[in-house]
Design a protein that fits this description.
Blueprint lengths: L13 H55 L24 E4 L25 E6 L36 E9 L7 E6 L1 E2 L7 E2 L3 E5 L1 E10 L8 E3 L12 E15 L9 E2 L12 H4 E2 L6 E11 L12
Antiparallel strand pairs: 1-2, 2-3, 3-4, 4-7, 5-6, 8-9, 8-10, 10-13, 11-12
Length: about 300
C-alpha cells in the first residue's frame, strides 16, 4: 500500500510574525490603558470617600460643641438650685475671625503675630457638667469635652458653674507635611487648683479652613441679623441663635487639571453679613489641583446663653 508523501512543515513568515506582534501590542496597550483608567478612578473614589469622611467628622465635632453651648444642669448634685454664671461673665459661645494661636483662659484671645491658616476662625464653647455626687469629680456623661470625657459638675463654692470648655480652631500638623487640621482643646482640671489649658489635639486632618457666621435673634428695636465675629460686640454673643459653619476639606490625591474656578464660595445662600470680609465667604486654595470639597451646616443654639426671666 502506497503511503502519501510527507510534506515539509511550513513556518511563519516574517511579515506574519510582525503583524501578530503588532496586534498583541495593541491589545496589551488597550488593556494597560484600561487598567490605568480603572486605577485612577478607584483612587479618585477612595479620595472622595476620605474627604467625605473627614468632612462629616468635622461637622459632627462642631455640632456637638455648639449643641452643648450654655448648657446648665437643672438637677444639680452640689447645690439646691440651678446655678447660672454671672451676667458679666465670659459668653458661653464666642468666636474670633482670622485667629492664630488661640487661647481660651481667662477669655478667648488670639496671639499677635501667630500664623493663621487660610484666615480661619476660632470658636470657644463653654458649658456645665453634671455629677452624681456633690464632690466636683464624678460625672454622668451628660456633656463631654474634646477628648470625649464627661464633664463634672462644679461644686457650690465656685462662682461659675461652667466647667466644660471646647476650643475649635485650625492649625498645622507637627509632621513633615505640615497639613492643616481641625484642632480641639479643653482644659485639664486637678480639682484643687484653677483650670489650666490642655494641649490642643488634631481631630480631623485635611481641614483647610474654618469659617463661621452668626445669626442674632431679633429684639424689640432690631430685627434678626447675621454677622461675622469682627462685627459682634459683647452683648451680641448672648443673642446668637444660629451658627453658620463652612469647612473646606482636602484629600490626598491630585486631579489631572485644576478646577475651572479657583475660588470656592463658602456660604452661597447667605446674604452679605455685617462685617464681612472676602475671606469670610470665599476660599482660594493654595493647591488648585488637589481634590477637595466644601461642607456647610447651620446649627441652632439649643440652650439659653444668658440667664433670662423666661429661661431660668
Amino acid at each position: 500500500m502506497r503511503r502519501p508523501p510527507i510534506r515539509a512543515a511550513r513556518g511563519v513568515s516574517l511579515v506574519e510574525l510582525l503583524v501578530g506582534m503588532i496586534i498583541a501590542l495593541i491589545i496589551l496597550g488597550i488593556a494597560l490603558q484600561l487598567t490605568l483608567v480603572a486605577r485612577a478612578r478607584y483612587e479618585r473614589l477612595a479620595d472622595e470617600a476620605l474627604i467625605e469622611d473627614r468632612g462629616m467628622q468635622a461637622l459632627d465635632l462642631i455640632s456637638r460643641a455648639v449643641q452643648q453651648a450654655g448648657w446648665i444642669t437643672d438637677t444639680p448634685a452640689s447645690s439646691a438650685v440651678r446655678r447660672w454664671p454671672d451676667a458679666d461673665g465670659t459668653p458661653s459661645l464666642v468666636g474670633q475671625d482670622d485667629c492664630g494661636g488661640p487661647r481660651m483662659l481667662p477669655a478667648l484671645t488670639c496671639q499677635a503675630g501667630a500664623p493663621v491658616v487660610a484666615h480661619s476662625d476660632a470658636l470657644l464653647i463653654r458649658f456645665a457638667g453634671r455629677s452624681t455626687e456633690p464632690n466636683g469629680r464624678d460625672n454622668d456623661g451628660a456633656t463631654r469635652d474634646c477628648t470625649g470625657h464627661g464633664v463634672p459638675e462644679r461644686i457650690a463654692g465656685e462662682s461659675d458653674p461652667r466647667a466644660g470648655y471646647m476650643l475649635l480652631y485650625i492649625a498645622r500638623s507637627s509632621d513633615a507635611e505640615r497639613a492643616p487640621q481641625l484642632m480641639c482643646r479643653s482644659i485639664k482640671r486637678d480639682y484643687e487648683h484653677s483650670p489650666e489649658e490642655a494641649t490642643g489635639d488634631g481631630f480631623v486632618r485635611g481641614v483647610e479652613t474654618l469659617q463661621l457666621l452668626y445669626t442674632l435673634g431679633p429684639t424689640a428695636t432690631s430685627p434678626a441679623v447675621t454677622k461675622s465675629a469682627r462685627a459682634m460686640d459683647d452683648n451680641d454673643w448672648h443673642r446668637v441663635q444660629r451658627v453658620h459653619v463652612a469647612v473646606v476639606v482636602r484629600g490626598e490625591r491630585f486631579a489631572a487639571n485644576a478646577a475651572q474656578s479657583e475660588h470656592i464660595a463658602l456660604f452661597p445662600v447667605l446674604a452679605s453679613p455685617e462685617g464681612m470680609q472676602p475671606e469670610d465667604v470665599s476660599f482660594m486654595p493654595a493647591e488648585p489641583r488637589r481634590h477637595r470639597a466644601r461642607f456647610t451646616i447651620t446649627l441652632a443654639v439649643r440652650n439659653p446663653l444668658r440667664c433670662e426671666v423666661d429661661a431660668c
